[in-house]
Amino acid sequence: MTVVEASTFSSGASFLDAPTGDRTAPVCILGAPMDWATTNRAGAREGPAAIRRASRLLLDGDHPVHGTNPASLGLSDLGDVPVLIGDIAESHRRIEDAATGLAHLCTLGGDHSVALPLLRAAAKRHGPLGLVQFDAHTDTWDENFGQDLAHGTPFHHALEEGLIDPKRTIQIGIRAPMDAKLLRDTVLSRGLTILSAEDVHDAGADAVAARVIEVVGPGPTYLSFDIDALDPAFAPGTGTPEVGGLASWQARAILRRLAPVNFIGMDLVEVAPAYDHAEITALAGATMVWDYLSLQVAKLRVGA
Amino acid sequence: MTVVEASTFSSGASFLDAPTGDRTAPVCILGAPMDWATTNRAGAREGPAAIRRASRLLLDGDHPVHGTNPASLGLSDLGDVPVLIGDIAESHRRIEDAATGLAHLCTLGGDHSVALPLLRAAAKRHGPLGLVQFDAHTDTWDENFGQDLAHGTPFHHALEEGLIDPKRTIQIGIRAPMDAKLLRDTVLSRGLTILSAEDVHDAGADAVAARVIEVVGPGPTYLSFDIDALDPAFAPGTGTPEVGGLASWQARAILRRLAPVNFIGMDLVEVAPAYDHAEITALAGATMVWDYLSLQVAKLRVGA
Amino acid sequence: MTVVEASTFSSGASFLDAPTGDRTAPVCILGAPMDWATTNRAGAREGPAAIRRASRLLLDGDHPVHGTNPASLGLSDLGDVPVLIGDIAESHRRIEDAATGLAHLCTLGGDHSVALPLLRAAAKRHGPLGLVQFDAHTDTWDENFGQDLAHGTPFHHALEEGLIDPKRTIQIGIRAPMDAKLLRDTVLSRGLTILSAEDVHDAGADAVAARVIEVVGPGPTYLSFDIDALDPAFAPGTGTPEVGGLASWQARAILRRLAPVNFIGMDLVEVAPAYDHAEITALAGATMVWDYLSLQVAKLRVGA
Amino acid sequence: MTVVEASTFSSGASFLDAPTGDRTAPVCILGAPMDWATTNRAGAREGPAAIRRASRLLLDGDHPVHGTNPASLGLSDLGDVPVLIGDIAESHRRIEDAATGLAHLCTLGGDHSVALPLLRAAAKRHGPLGLVQFDAHTDTWDENFGQDLAHGTPFHHALEEGLIDPKRTIQIGIRAPMDAKLLRDTVLSRGLTILSAEDVHDAGADAVAARVIEVVGPGPTYLSFDIDALDPAFAPGTGTPEVGGLASWQARAILRRLAPVNFIGMDLVEVAPAYDHAEITALAGATMVWDYLSLQVAKLRVGA
Amino acid sequence: MTVVEASTFSSGASFLDAPTGDRTAPVCILGAPMDWATTNRAGAREGPAAIRRASRLLLDGDHPVHGTNPASLGLSDLGDVPVLIGDIAESHRRIEDAATGLAHLCTLGGDHSVALPLLRAAAKRHGPLGLVQFDAHTDTWDENFGQDLAHGTPFHHALEEGLIDPKRTIQIGIRAPMDAKLLRDTVLSRGLTILSAEDVHDAGADAVAARVIEVVGPGPTYLSFDIDALDPAFAPGTGTPEVGGLASWQARAILRRLAPVNFIGMDLVEVAPAYDHAEITALAGATMVWDYLSLQVAKLRVGA
Amino acid sequence: MTVVEASTFSSGASFLDAPTGDRTAPVCILGAPMDWATTNRAGAREGPAAIRRASRLLLDGDHPVHGTNPASLGLSDLGDVPVLIGDIAESHRRIEDAATGLAHLCTLGGDHSVALPLLRAAAKRHGPLGLVQFDAHTDTWDENFGQDLAHGTPFHHALEEGLIDPKRTIQIGIRAPMDAKLLRDTVLSRGLTILSAEDVHDAGADAVAARVIEVVGPGPTYLSFDIDALDPAFAPGTGTPEVGGLASWQARAILRRLAPVNFIGMDLVEVAPAYDHAEITALAGATMVWDYLSLQVAKLRVGA
Tell me, what's the pLDDT at C301? Predict the structure, then answer.
């Protein structure tokens, strides 16, 4: 059979067509297909498959700004964690187990509750972490509708368990009604830095990125990107949309200015394909991960 | 303001615009909005709202065959059980609690796991029940992917707990691959009667109804209708579609021939609106409940 | 430019790519793009455009059963009647005006209220008509939610005005709840013949066609085809779907057995594209019109 | 049954789950489900139900900027006006009737023609009003395609009837082709202030809000928000989309700077769910109403 | 990491999660992702990926009728042929090349033109073949709109090249207008057997299967399944839908009665995911392949 | 029949309802319905029909900025070129043939490969052209996956053939990964000017327009607008979406500042309706063409 490079519509199923199954790779990709911690629309369990499929559009070539190719990082896609249907705590244990011992991990969610076991695994390796969180919600509730492990709670627990340092935590895109009182009463007093969506619309990417770099400093830092940070026009395929969010170009512009941040891992969560259209949400998610990976290459190159 | 009957696009939010909140009503409607026991596509948590909304098309008038109107039953819509996100066992406890003590209950799911607490509540009142189950799957597994309370398991537990009588249990529309070995090894040996989808296509409604009546006999009997008994063409909005299912007219034709059965309650489960189109699945679900209710009126009238 | 037959994706906008604007043509096509007489979901105003577009799939070739090509009838597409937004009575006047004086007319709706002015125009030419109506609803109400010209009323008025002969009227596919009492109290006493959807499922196309031919006899007869006669699986794109309807093959099988009927015109109504998917409803509508036209060619050929 | 707060997927059907039916409430919500005055795509009759359902996402908590909760206003949802299908004038009479005598009303449309009877009712109470109109179209035509009460005409009539003061009227987001000549010939000469969509993109929220406050002054003012003021990317579910509109964050940014305006009521119109995707248009509409209500609370608090 | 069986939403990307890349496997799966030979709607290039993804629902368990599991055949998924965009002839050469030398091949299309190179490869191994073709169209044109290798022509060329034996060829489901004259003038005179969709609706699965077995006899036979054999209600996601087609249960019922046929390979073509909804077309396609594979296991077992 | 202006839902099928078929018209519209040169999602063959249909919303009135009406240009819609399915080179020959000899041509694609024959025809008349290209991709590859005429290659060939002058070529919105290395290695060295999407977000419309005018100068210039220049939120209906693109208002703002440019023709390509929602992509495309035409009227008026 003549060897010809395949078209994008023939690409494989791993993220960026990466090799699979090597837990010793410099950077691993992992799916966390659970959505039973969601409070509104479900469906994020199909997020990892959709993001992987959408990544075929990003296969060939370098990042337009960084001029780098994530393939040079030595990626390995580990597939999906075998989560336990309808059991949040046990699923979290399996996610933490799967994430432990990896050098650098990008996780594809799944609902945002998966950030908790991921932070547990990362903090075991790195100690308390800085956090850059793109999100419409603070996710610092102590429970949602009675469920203390729901997708609105991971950062409450991460703070309680000392996995993240509140002084080195910054949340970007916050605008959900249910967070207003929470912010006033609890979050701000804990020392977190909050940039609302309106702050981003008003201040611009340069100012936001500068603030992020200032807050997280040089220490090890985790990126948690909830796709609902984007406006529903850019990310309809998610469970808890909030009007007035970021444009995708704003998120990308901020992200690519974060080269000084010492990222040690990330997650991209809350892509719910059943509510997506023409893959625009899945592609936005895949693009954010790809931007992050390209940024890591750029940093490695600089560091070399 | 002139008093004029509202159009169907203005109808209220309870099922068939029924009065709400009266647990002493002769027939109650209850939503069980959980989907964390599903094994494939999620979204059935939005089923109760979608079925209620679709029922506006069935508001005005009598059943075309029975000539009866469910409103005459004295319906009350009790709203939704406050299930606990991501906790199957606790959600089941709350559903059982909500279902206990009601005279006659029609439950709108939610995933099929809710049939277990509903049968527990019904069996407390009536003793072991006959079961008429429309479904693509037997749902008699002892676990799904490690979860023993998943939506493929309720009738295993119902049999184990003696809630249903296997000799008085009949399943209609079965065709899922994963059930083939199960049927051979376990289900049939327990004494259940299985009519595959192909059996229905071959035998016709008269023969199927006769077989149902023969199997369940005159004792108290429960109807569990999983919308995936219908073919995906008729019910795309569901989590575990299987090709080759029943046409909606076949299900209706069977159902309306079951006047001799002594039904004491029912559920309609697995409507997942995110995968629906133009409400056809939600409307199919609402129609099956409406057919059931119309049948009960007909029986009451005969009994009077 | 080389002259090459265009692909179906390049076809023109008239029905079957017919010539346009000739009111003296043997058979005319007319759009009646109104939907303000609908009681539930709107959108049928876009039906004529969608049906014309869908007809590109039927352009090339003969009818598989009749072996005829509608193009041989000498079609002319007259475009759409300039209806008056939100004014049913005036729109009806304009439709009747546009339909008057044509030799043989196929109208693309639009909601079913357009059948009334169309019957007025036809009865002026032919006297009282027989009626073959495919529909989920009898549409013989005297008003809907206070509106006496709504889409559920045309045949009430047609009967009152003597446009159709009740003894020569047959309705096929009836199954809507709101019609049950109406049927019992009014319709049947007027002498109409009703075949429910279940009657069709039970009796089959041969028996139904025979009954139609028997009822309408040799006199001039009008065909009114409401796309909701089909089950929502086959025609999701309509305003008032009812579960349990005809398969498209059943409708086609009946239709093609009606060669003995002396049809003098028809309408195809209630296609609402906003609720359609992948054009399946619009194509079903276009196919019914095409079947009808092919049948007329077959009759002309026989008559010649 | 254990009392547990319900999840957002179980919320009730009234706007923000408000109590229903009290016409003496400080602020009332009313649905006006008509779409027979639309000139292009229909479907806005389903807008009120969709906006109410979407409001479940805004239930819990305070406004992120104002720190207020609309529930404190004492809302009551009055349901939908029983409009008359296909009769604009009579429907307008019923809407005016339903709106008369209420203290402060937020109406969910329905097409934009409903603003006329709403302004009639409001002007009866307050005299000539200032008007802040978000819209892609001026809606000041004297007729559309022959219909003088169509959805492109309400403000022509409101001006003619003296319901609004042209000097205190400002329209924001205007960009429709059909308005260009109208603006040149008629509208501007009447003294209205027009800010095109491009003006908003160029000037920013601060400048726009300042201009609004300047134009409407301290007198009683009505807000009419046509969802097509937003770009189709943010509000696909509407009947007359125009490319180049406002981002949702722009509209929100303007709105929340209007605290000095003395609003006495509002409408949110032209949400057409059949063209929506993943509820993003309905949610945008619900959010604008919620922003407005939150603003009123903030003003009340300041006033206290 | 605890080893737990993954859920269906975590399944791999090969068909039925089969091992990949072994051309010596007893049965191979191959994707042929081209759609530039289509005459109407494009998009079948994404068919192979969609069918593989949909096959996750068929992973676990045996065939309900045959009691067999395709995994026991020793499947290998070879991925997709690297077709050449916009070049039919060269793409066909690559497909033939990829298909040559394999023991038994199931190909996932792609448009129906791929059947030609697949038959060339099969005939090299087996000599002239019998053909069982499910299709709405005969696909025996000598050109479509000037393109002699378009998707309506493969069987014309296969006949011309002697790849299939007309006396051992049977086409099932034929109903397209453009074929009527062709059938009359050409196809039937060549000796093919044609069963229209109406023939299937009238005769039933037993009679159809008997006729197939009679026509193709004991010689080596190829199955070509165009998904548009199914009605658009069951398979909206295809390029050239025709109203009045087979129900999925009819196709399955016929297929499973074909155990006596000596099949040596098959293709499943014309699934176009952009027009699909909730994966029902892709799942129907995957199910037909799975039925075919299960049938082969049953035959092997009988043969053993 | 009363003559009344038809509603937008009744408009004809030519672009802006223009007269048809006059190749001597001052400005012609032409469809180029091919998509077999696409590398990812197909479907652009349905672009011309969708853009024409969407143009009904732009029929009545003048451009809001220019105050002009394209109808005054003397448009004629020539319909679609009869392209040859699956044969890029021959289709290009037919497109070039159809475009040759026209005074001023606006072409509706179709995939971007059609720009090559269109530039060939234009350069025959005008000599080497300046080029203003809105696009996510440079489309200057020498081949895509082995196909040298694929939709990523037209401007490579146009440069090689001397149809466009690299010094007078500017590309706006570039952001695709696969172009990064290409830009570095080839494109920039050829002298093209590239403005990335980020450049547009940062610099604003005034600066971008000034740069365009500076680059292309006063010579004859061609506009090639690939709809994927817009962000997927604004243009989901396209084959190769890239996250982070232009808002529609940005593109419009740039375009309307280009009055000084001496445009001699344009194309609008890559609208793929199967991936569109609520026509927002088709309407965005139609609006860009309408903006361009309005701009030409404004220039003619100035020139007069």
Answer: 65
Asked if D39 is an interface residue toward chain C (Cβ–Cβ < 8 A), one would say: yes
pLDDT digit string (tens) for F212-266? 999 999 999 999 999 999 999 999 999 999 999 999 999 999 999 999 999 999 9
| C100 burial type by CB count under 10 A (0-12 exposed, 13-18 middle, 19+ buried) | middle
- Contact call for residues E156 and E115 (beta carbons, < 8 A): no
Tokens of B172: 């209609």
Query: Left if phi > 0, otherwise alpha if psi is -120 to 50, otherwise beta: which for F95?
Result: alpha
**Partner-chain contact B241 E58, CB within 8 Å:** no
CA A274 from centre of chain: 19
Alpha-carbon distance of A285 to A52, in angstroms, equals 10
How far apart are the C-alpha atoms of C198 and B254, rounded to whole Å? Answer: 11
Candidate from B183, B243, B277 with C-beta closest to E283: B243
ipTM for the predicted complex comes to: 0.94
* Reported confidence tier of residue B301, pLDDT bands at 50, 70, 90: low
Inspect the interface and report whether the beta carbons of A84 and E31 lie closer than 8 Å.
Answer: no
B12-52: pLDDT as tens digits: 689 999 999 999 999 999 999 999 999 999 999 999 999 99
- Spatial distance between the Cα atoms of C272 and C111, rounded to a whole number of angstroms: 9
Q: Residue E210's Cα: distance from chain center in Å?
A: 20
Distance CA F20, CA F78 (A): 6
DSSP assignment, residue E111? S
Q: How close, in Å, is residue C38 to chain B by CA atoms?
A: 10
Percent of chain F surpassing pLDDT 90: 83
Query: Pick from D247, D242, D239, D257: which is nearest to D284 by CA?
Result: D247
Q: Which residues of F touch E38 (CB under 8 A)?
A: 85
Share above pLDDT 70 across residues of chain A, in percent, rounded to a whole number: 96
Residue in chain A nearest D253 by alpha carbon: A198
Q: What is the DSSP letter of E24?
A: T
Residue A90 phi, psi (nearest 5): -65, -40
pLDDT given at position B12: 66
Closest CA to C238 of C96, C60, C63, C51: C51
- Name the residue among C177, C196, C276 with its Cβ closest to that of B58: C177
Report the C-alpha gap between A295 and A278 in whole angstroms: 27
CB-based contact B177:E62 (threshold 8 Å): yes
Tell me, yes or no, if B277 comes closer than 8 A to chain D by beta carbon: no
A118: left (phi over 0), alpha (psi -120 to 50) or beta: alpha
Residues constituting chain D: 304
CA pair distance A166, A130, nearest whole angstrom = 8
How far is C-alpha D282 from the chain's CA centre? 13
The SS3 of residue B137 is coil
Task: Give the residue from chain F lying closest to D236, CA to CA.
Answer: F278
Q: Are the C-beta atoms of residues C233 and B248 closer than 8 Å to each other?
A: yes
Nearest residue on chain C to D37, alpha-carbon basis: C86
- Residues of chain D neighbouring B98 (CB-CB closer than 8 A): 1
Residue E22, SS3? Answer: coil
Distance from CA of D82 to the nearest CA of B (A): 5
Residue in chain A lying closest to D64 (CA): A180
Residue in C5, C9, C100 to test binding to F, most F beta-carbons within 10 Å? C9
CA-wise closest residue to F105 among F92, F89, F91, F120: F120
Helices (DSSP H) in E110-153: which residue ranges? Answer: 115-126
% of chain C with per-residue pLDDT over 70: 96
**CA B184 centroid distance within chain:** 26
**Does the bond joining F110 to the residue before it have cis omega, within 30 degrees of 0?**
yes
Beta bridge partners of residue F268, listed in sequence order: F108, F225
d(CA C183, CA C187): 5
Q: Give the distance from CA C32 to its chain's centroid.
A: 12
